[in-house]
Design brief:
Chain A: InterPro entries: UreF, UreF_sf. Chain A: Required for maturation of urease via the functional incorporation of the urease nickel metallocenter. Chain A: Belongs to the UreF family. The complex is a heterodimer of chains A (223) and B (290). With 223 residues, chain A is mostly helical. Helices cover 71% and strands 0% of the residues of chain A. Chain A has helices spanning 3-9, 24-29, 36-62, 67-76, 81-101, 105-113, 120-130, 135-158, 162-193, 204-214. In chain A, helix 3 (36-62) crosses helix 7 (120-130), helix 3 runs antiparallel to helix 8 (135-158) and helix 3 (36-62) runs parallel beside helix 9 (162-193). In chain B, 6% of the residues lie in helices and 47% in strands. Chain B is built from one helix and 18 strands. In chain B, strands 3, 4, 6, 7, 9, 10, 12, 15, 16, 17 and 18 form an eleven-stranded mixed beta sheet that branches. In chain B, strand 1 and strand 2 form a beta hairpin. Classes of the chains: A mainly alpha (223), B mainly beta (290).
């Protein structure tokens, strides 16, 4: 475990993730998250869909795959424009922090190629590579984040006991590791087979509720 | 059961128990001819007339075919394949005679169903099969690959229902990949049912919904407009229409408690798309040839 990975996944790293609930705010409003048990199932479902896709994109970027091809692959796997906007905004914020922390020509080039932001998992993977981390590190960071942001947000949304939220994530840790392993294996296949070999697990209810959430006049979280 | 004459997909190489191949080409007189119309084993295909893109369309009518299941399939262990190629300026509508019911095989093996659709420039394909029903105990791996050339037009409807009426869900993995000139437009892998990804029926998964549908309108002359919620949060059907990132394309995503609730929404949206009567979502008239 590298300290660079700790920094990259630290909530204090200025990447802007704290403003996002990973769909939890909409799920709470629609009565699908009501406490620790339903939060755990929400995080599990998100981890194995959105999280798997993000982890594979991140691992492929960290392995040195073509970043713009991965960015296109992320677009094709994100039918919700609200979620595409969020992903690119988070990507832009992360890239700004990454270029300060781990300056690298590939990060400068990505910023030039995608001035409105590349998809966050692609930036995460490229950042991991610039920081000397492995594809598996990048996959773990992305997979963990997919479960971590709804858990953290639910503490604020429901007044959930933070100890319970931490316990939810601790119990999910083996599944986070398994998803990261699967994502890394897919990223290695993609080196010869192209981005079509990356997982494309869909979460249609998250897509619908993300669009609904984006239309709310006031909300606590951006997504 | 014959297996000859049907190319097997590299990804699912093995025994092919049903296959259909159709090639549609412009006949040079403003219509569409079908030089290849072949069914094997558990699948057959019939020419079922013509259908215009719209009732008022001045454009020539295209051909229409119907897929017919010649026997109960796909069963576990079956490998089915449909290949449809629509050549430049041809127009084809594909329907199916009945829902496809995936049933468990004797040994509990998976069944495979691969659909490969290619649409050339100036061509149009309406892929409108009846729903796929994953019966209890079944395990179907479906892939739908659509390769469009810029200037092609596609209307695609997919419906999946978990379990027959009152029955527990089967297992389904259905991946839909659409490319335009080789670039990915849409890639969605829907994995649900017992034994699939953990959380598949939870609050980030189906949350109790048992029917899932997608309607994709893509390509030349297709309007891309802002996202539009088609139902309210309190409705039993959850549906949204969204523009895709990779070009002129709109995707309708819908979840419903059952097939009975899903079809009316998709049918209504499809009619609006085909008739051009919707105010928000409609195909705009395609530009004519120069």
């Amino acid at each position: 475990m590298s300290a660079a990975l700790l920094l990259l996944t630290d909530g204090r790293f200025p990447a802007g993730g704290h403003a996002h609930s990973g769909g939890a705010e909409a799920a709470v409003a629609e009565g699908r998250i009501t406490g620790a048990a339903t939060l755990a199932e929400f995080c599990r479902g998100r981890l194995h869909t959105t999280g798997l896709v993000a982890a594979a994109l991140a691992a492929a970027a960290a392995a040195g795959a073509d970043l713009l091809a991965l960015d296109d692959a992320a677009d094709a796997r994100t039918p919700s424009p609200a979620l595409r906007t969020v992903s690119r905004r988070l990507g832009r914020q992360l890239l700004r922090a990454a270029r300060a922390a781990w300056p690298a020509a590939v990060l400068d080039q990505l910023a030039a190629d995608r001035p409105r932001g590349a998809h966050q998992p692609v930036v995460l993977g490229a950042t991991a590579r610039a920081a000397g981390l492995t594809p598996l590190d990048a996959a773990r960071a992305a997979a963990y984040e997919s479960a971590g942001s709804p858990a953290t947000a639910t503490v604020r949304l429901l007044g959930l006991d933070p100890f319970q939220a931490a316990a939810v994530l601790a119990r999910l840790a083996p599944e986070v590791d398994a998803v990261a392993d699967a994502a890394t294996a897919a990223a290695h296949r993609a080196r010869t087979e192209g981005t079509g070999a990356l997982p494309a697990a869909s979460a249609p209810l998250l897509d619908v509720s993300a669009e609904r959430h984006a239309a709310w006049p006031t909300r606590l979280f951006t997504s | 059961m014959t297996t000859t004459g049907v190319a097997s997909c590299p990804r699912t190489a093995g025994r092919v128990t049903g296959g259909v191949r159709v090639a549609a080409v412009a006949d040079g007189r403003g219509g569409t001819a079908l030089p290849l119309l072949a069914g094997e084993g558990a699948l057959a295909v019939r020419r079922t007339g013509t259908r215009a893109w719209t009732q008022q369309s001045p454009r020539p009518k295209g051909a229409a075919v119907t897929l017919v299941g010649a026997m109960s399939a796909p069963l576990g262990g079956d490998r089915m394949r449909v290949e449809i190629a629509v050549g430049a300026d041809a127009r084809l509508t594909v329907r199916s005679a009945a829902a496809t019911v995936a049933l468990p095989g004797r040994g509990g093996e998976s069944a495979w169903y691969d659909v490969l659709l290619t649409v050339a420039g100036g061509a149009e394909l309406l892929w409108l099969p009846e729903p796929l029903i994953a019966a209890a105990g079944s395990d179907l791996r479906m892939t739908t690959r659509v390769d469009l050339v810029r200037g092609a037009r596609l209307v695609l409807r997919e419906e999946a229902v978990l379990g027959r009426y009152g029955e527990s869900p089967g297992r389904l993995a259905s991946r839909l990949t659409v490319t335009v000139d080789g670039r990915p437009l849409l890639d969605q892998d829907f994995r649900v049912g017992p034994g699939s990804a953990p959380g598949w029926d939870g609050p980030a998964g189906l949350a109790g919904h048992r029917a899932f549908g997608q309607l994709l309108v893509a390509g030349s002359g297709t309007a891309t407009l802002g996202p539009q919620l088609l139902t309210r949060a309190s409705d039993v059907v959850q549906a949204v229409a969204t523009p895709l990132a990779g070009g002129a394309a709109t995707l309708v995503t819908a979840l419903a408690p059952d097939a009975r609730h899903l079809r009316p929404l998709l049918a209504r949206t499809l009619e609006e798309l085909l008739d051009g009567s919707a105010t928000d979502i409609r195909p705009v008239p395609a530009a004519g040839p120069p």
